[in-house]
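Q: What structure does this chain adopt?
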Amino acid sequence: MKIRTDINDFNSIPNVGPATIRYLDILGITKPLELIGQNPYSMHRNLCDITRKNCDPCLIDVFISAVKYMEGDPPQKWWHYTKGRKRKLSQKRSY
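A:
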């Protein structure tokens, strides 16, 4: 897995469009390289806190796909991560 250091434009990341770019800007993430090492669940929680809104949980899937892509994973549709996200969030709530 090779980290993608050659990507300088969010539009080059699969599943990332204008709305996601705005959310990343709200989070203070202004360069694709800043996605490397990010926790998509924390990103979503922080976005909800900043905007004082319950953001769509599918956004977590988009964040996961973007982070994993920048970290070298092959491109995947964002919904590829939905099942895992739902499983993880349901486990977290069952404590």
